[in-house]
Fold these 3 entries.
Entry 1:
Amino acid sequence: MSTNTPVLSLDEFEQTLPDTGRVMGLDLGTKTIGLALSDLGRSIATPLETIKRKKFTLDADRLLELCQTHAVVGLVLGLPLNMDGSEGPRVQSTKAFARNLAQRTSLPMVFWDERLSTAAVTRTLIDADRSRARRAELVDKMAASYILQGLLDRLHYGGTSFFD
């Protein structure tokens, strides 16, 4: 990762985490932040909630309140790379969010490639015959869960990551 972000490599993140404890996944959109939580053993990701974005301070307050409530030990931020792996404006926005959040918390953070997460979740919701309104309500927190589950699977089963 870039040296101007406070985000750890996957190996550093894994080494920093205690043996048990919840990890929170974030899907950072321009209008919402989808959140998901792992179980204590970090095997399963579950959608938690969607924060409607207002301004950074309010968004961060709510996020950190939830981290405290659920005893979160680490944060996984979806990194919205372009399909060719290049970084666009949304990646820069995500990195800026991470830098700003790091000034307010000491929780370890890691990026996880989120390409196709929203598309995969939307396809699942369409297959489940959810209405457009219901899909809009669910997609962000489910995308956060999809992102988090990808990282949890990588931690439990090894394999490779985009960032290795």
Note: The mean pLDDT is 84.
Entry 2:
Amino acid sequence: MYTKICSALSRSCMWLGVMGLVLLIAAVSWQVFGRYVLNNTPTWAESLSLLLVLYVTMFGVAVGVRNSGHIGLESFLVLAPDWLRTKMEYLIHALVLLFGACMAYSCASLAESVWEYRLPTLGISEGWKYIPAVIAGSLIVLFSIEHIIALAQGREVEAN
């Protein structure tokens, strides 16, 4: 059941990332069109593009952790004996979990500290820049737990 939930979350992140990329392309295209054709650069387009890059990147990072696309010291794992390899895999997933938890907590604190400030070109809170890292960090924790459970059960987490 937990794997199905994580799989659905991962798939949702991929779709949100794809939609973010489409919006990013549209915003940058509008910015270029405004600058070179209309001779009137839309100031909001650059800010929106930077914000969308954060969301697309963070959702991609979370999916990468679930699909084991992160750097996991593969060369050391291949060379290690079986008894050590499993312990190293536990350590890697635990460290990734710790990183995700620290990222979620720290970015939540940052978002809270700047929530009153506004991005002038978009009119939204400055805290929205940190929300994708909070979401991604939380998902990294969930996906790392999934990997640890799968490792304890002697199976692999299947990528989407």
Note: The chain has a mean pLDDT of 91.
Entry 3:
Amino acid sequence: MHTSVQKWSAEFIGTLWLTLGGCGSAVLAAAFPEIGIGLVGVSLAFGLTVVTGAYALGPISGGHFNPAVSVGLAMGGRFAWAELPGYVIAQVLGAVVGGGILYVIATGKAGADLGGFATNGFGAHSPGGYDLSAAVLTEVVMTALFLVVILGTTAQRAAAGFAGLAIGLCLTLIHLISIPVTNTSVNPARSTGVAVFGPDIAMNQLWLFWVAPIVGAIIGAVIYKSLLANRADD
């Protein structure tokens, strides 16, 4: 049995890695001259952070790395509500430290232009100019389906050993769909970690990227638990 400190440490490191790896690919490599990785590369980078983090740290903490996922797992009966505050604090701190590391790296050259710094937004701050309603719907639906995948692949009846891969690929697909709309959050910690160092508009719009993913996670957990789960899942 792992201690609370070990679990919090795993969530801190995993969320730091997700923020640094995913957002770092967007800030440093997406449009790098001649060999930029683009939208597909950034989407894959986010998925890879989850895959690697899940297999390395999942056996310790469950590998949430996302407050919305923690809420959804608690709603789905897979995680104790009493553990939620510690996980969320560790996740947010990890994301902010990851964002800070990325900020130091990104500003380490003359004339550095951070742009949006991989922050999330809607309206004028949406990559594709999508409005608030489109952003809300995108974040709620994507997070809900993310939770369905997480709960399904981690159920007792699911194929053993493949959950981390499936969850990472799901996050990749989510980014491929929704980067143009909100720059893809589905993770309040990831959004917070870069918003702290990004433009003012990112902090002003951050509320949406807490509310919508958490609402979506709850909806996804309710859908799975009421329509798809059976006793063998717990």
Note: The mean pLDDT is 95.
